[in-house]
């Protein structure tokens, strides 16, 4: 088990190093001179030279990469060129919107998918199962940002139950959660459709195993077998999908933020693109990639908790 | 149930493909013609799906938009297959070697970058365009195909008929192309259908946030973005492009499921029990 954890940790570190190298190469080396790229065609040579020295571009690429990573590790992401403020502060502000949004939708999607998947598996082959599967098939095809617009139309424009957009900040937690509810639901539902399908098929696969027949033979009801024996064994594929979904939720959150005018990382990165603020783009992309890689690492370790067979030395 | 949904899938996909082809020769109205006098009309006999804030016919824009969606998703699948399949075949032919390891670790790396992030990076340095959307989705497709190909090819390499081919003196590359690849065709067609539908969704998302096809080319995602501020008084503008996306993706998913059931006899047996 220790060996598994160590190998997985080593590969985590390697992934992070290579991913950061790729981001650095694409955003700092490919554009040629980032300073003149950020300032545009009509910049004065003196301005370009000033920005060059401010960004430390006179050093070699390898040294710049080392400086960047060293800074990031100590919480210094550099200074935004467009806003003249430290990027770390901007990111910290925005993460307070994007991270709760992604977590809330992950929780919602799991909370919706588990009972539905269990229910469909328990009623396998019946019209209930067919109906649920048809509904999830439509759910999988829903673009989350369009679903978000429909939710706005119903709950904000027509019923006026929830705000159509904007974020009041965490000073008023109730208002903050209310502002995140519709975006989180929009993100969660298509993911829940995928997850409940995976859940159902994993359960159906497990239910054909010998140990399930034994459990039935010793007198457990179908439902008891499903929840006590099958669920735990079906958890590995479900966990894998939850891990994969987190990266889709993060990416989805970036898009959904635009529907609800939420001041999250998504709005930040799109503004940065239009302002050619590569420092901000680089930092946000790095942060998101690190999040994806870390979540997959945690999922791999979670297998150990779920499946005792993996814990053998 | 399986067969019926596969037929629905075929019908939907055919309709969307036909709409895209039709738009090359005929649309009810010219999508680049502005008619401000006829702006924001609800659906009527003259404009089946209404008009937008510039008086453009929504139905005509949807037809042309189908073209963009399909083109982007199709080329992205082509990139994924064109690079992913050879990589997967090469890795499977020499499992455990440095080549295999490099390819698989490279795959892991790309998986850490969702296509939206690839699109953000490309757009940050090159500016937004439909080509960037194709590249971003295509790059994300490469490891998908590489992984599927490698996994299935590894199992085939242990089979007797491959051994006979080796005894006949054929090289690994030749065996990969002549014997392994044809046996993977079914699997790859199913995967291509899935990636195609994911590509349609991804393209819609990218053009919605402005990272895809640029004006004046109509695209479903951007039609939705433009409709957003008018949703309270012109809901049809938000409704129809979204429905077009859902029906296309649904059609492709049903088709993919149907193909998988049809092409994989092992699954067919399981469905019956």
Protein model, in words:
Chain B: This is Peptide/nickel transport system permease protein. Chain B: Residues 66-256 form the ABC transmembrane type-1 domain. The complex is a heterodimer of chains A (313) and B (273). Chain A is mostly helical. Chain A folds into two domains: 2-73, no CATH class; 87-311, MetI-like fold, CATH 1.10.3720. Chain A has twelve helices and no strands. Chain B is mainly alpha-helical and 273 residues long. Chain B has a single domain (2-26, 47-272), classed as MetI-like fold. Chain B has ten helices and no strands. In chain B, helix 9 (235-263) packs across helix 10 (265-272). At the A-B interface, helix 1, helix 6, helix 7, helix 10 and helix 11 of A face helix 3, helix 4, helix 7, helix 8 and helix 9 of B.
Question: Which segments of chain A are poorly predicted (pLDDT under 50) over 5 or more consecutive residues?
Answer: none
Rounded radius of gyration of chain A (Å): 24 Å
Shape of chain B: elongated
Q: What is the CATH architecture annotation of the largest domain in chain A?
A: Orthogonal Bundle
Q: N-to-C terminal Cα separation of chain B, in Å?
A: 14 Å
């Amino acid at each position: 088990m220790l060996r598994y954890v160590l190998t997985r940790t080593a590969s985590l570190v390697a992934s992070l190093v290579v991913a950061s190298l790729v981001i650095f190469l694409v955003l700092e080396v490919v554009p040629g001179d980032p300073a003149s790229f950020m300032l545009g065609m009509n910049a004065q040579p003196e301005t370009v030279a000033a920005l060059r020295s401010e960004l430390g571009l006179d050093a070699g690429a390898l040294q710049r990469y080392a400086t960047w990573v060293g800074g990031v590790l100590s919480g210094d992401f550099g200074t935004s060129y467009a806003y003249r403020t430290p990027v770390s502060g901007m990111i910290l502000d925005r993460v307070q919107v994007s991270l709760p949004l992604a977590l809330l939708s992950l929780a919602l999607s799991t909370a919706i998918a588990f009972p539905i998947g269990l229910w469909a598996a328990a009623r396998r082959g019946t019209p209930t199962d067919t109906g649920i599967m048809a509904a999830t098939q439509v759910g999988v095809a829903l673009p989350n940002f369009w679903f978000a617009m429909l939710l706005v139309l119903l709950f904000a424009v027509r019923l006026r139950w929830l705000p159509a957009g904007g974020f009041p900040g965490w000073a008023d937690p109730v208002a903050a959660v209310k502002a995140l509810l519709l975006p989180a639901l929009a993100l969660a539902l298509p993911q829940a459709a995928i997850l409940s399908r995976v859940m159902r098929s994993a359960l159906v696969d497990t239910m054909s195993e010998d140990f399930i027949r034994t459990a039935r033979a010793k007198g457990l009801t179908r439902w008891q077998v499903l929840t006590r024996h099958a669920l735990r064994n079906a958890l590995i594929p479900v966990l894998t999908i939850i891990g994969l979904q987190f990266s889709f939720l993060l990416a989805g959150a970036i898009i959904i933020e635009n529907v609800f005018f939420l001041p999250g990382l998504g709005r930040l990165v799109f503004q940065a693109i239009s302002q050619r603020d590569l420092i901000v783009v680089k930092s946000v992309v790095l942060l998101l990639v690190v999040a994806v890689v870390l979540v997959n690492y945690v999922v791999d370790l979670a297998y150990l908790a779920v499946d005792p067979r993996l814990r053998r030395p | 149930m399986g067969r019926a949904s596969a037929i629905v899938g075929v019908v939907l996909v055919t309709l969307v493909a036909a709409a895209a082809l039709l738009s090359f020769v005929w649309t009810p109205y010219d999508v680049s013609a502005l008619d401000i006098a006829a702006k924001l009309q609800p659906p009527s006999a003259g404009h089946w799906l209404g008009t937008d804030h510039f008086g453009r016919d929504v139905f005509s824009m949807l037809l042309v938009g189908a073209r963009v969606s399909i083109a982007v998703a199709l080329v992205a699948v082509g990139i994924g297959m064109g690079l992913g399949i050879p990589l997967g075949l090469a890795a499977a032919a020499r499992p455990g070697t440095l080549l295999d390891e490099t390819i698989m670790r490279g795959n892991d790396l790309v998986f850490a970058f969702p296509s939206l992030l690839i699109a953000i990076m490309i757009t940050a340095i090159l500016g937004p365009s439909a080509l960037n959307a194709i590249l971003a989705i295509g790059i994300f497709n490469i490891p998908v195909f590489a992984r599927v190909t490698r996994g299935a090819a590894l199992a085939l390499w242990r089979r007797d008929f491959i051994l006979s081919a080796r005894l006949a003196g054929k090289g690994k590359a030749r065996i990969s192309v002549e014997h392994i690849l044809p046996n993977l065709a079914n699997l790859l067609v199913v995967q291509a259908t899935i990636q195609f539908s994911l590509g349609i969704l991804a393209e819609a998302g990218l053009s919605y946030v402005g990272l895809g096809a640029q004006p004046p080319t109509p695209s479903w995602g951007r039609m939705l973005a433009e409709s957003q501020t008018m949703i309270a008084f012109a809901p049809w503008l938000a409704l129809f492009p979204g429905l077009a996306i859902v029906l296309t993706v649904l059609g492709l998913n049903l088709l993919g499921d149907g193909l998988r059931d049809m092409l994989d006899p092992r699954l067919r047996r399981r469905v019956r029990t």
